[in-house]
Predict the 3D structure of the following.
Amino acid sequence: MQFFLLFDLGIYLSALLPWLLVANVPYPQASLPLGTFLGDTALYFVDCLPIVAAQYLMSLRFANFLAPIGIGFRAWVGALAVLSWQHANLVPYAYTILDYLGDNPAARTTAPTAGLQWFALAWFVLLTVAGYVLFATNTHKG
């Protein structure tokens, strides 16, 4: 959540810094569409929750910290590969990409993006419960 808050602050400051640092740059006239801005940020946050849960689950499974990083990177590359698949909305690593591409016809995605956050929340709950079960049944905790 901290990343998204800092990202939003950085986007806002990127509009104000030219006005603050350069003498002849006018103050931005348009107001910030705060509702749209925070709504999109919330959607991306929900889209990232299953990735966090999956990475946590893998970190409990593997003692080496590089294994979850490598598997997560492979899963992200795999998500890029399945974007043109009509069932790409079943792949949790593709949710942020699908949300970003949205209904853009040039993106050539065929997966439906409606209800994507419900899929993300379902995957998050499933992976979090699996992570908890793995943690609770692990004999070596630490």
Q: What stands out?
A: The radius of gyration is 19 Å. DSSP finds five helices and no strands in the chain. Residues 59 and 66 are 9 Å apart (CA to CA). The chain has a mean pLDDT of 88.
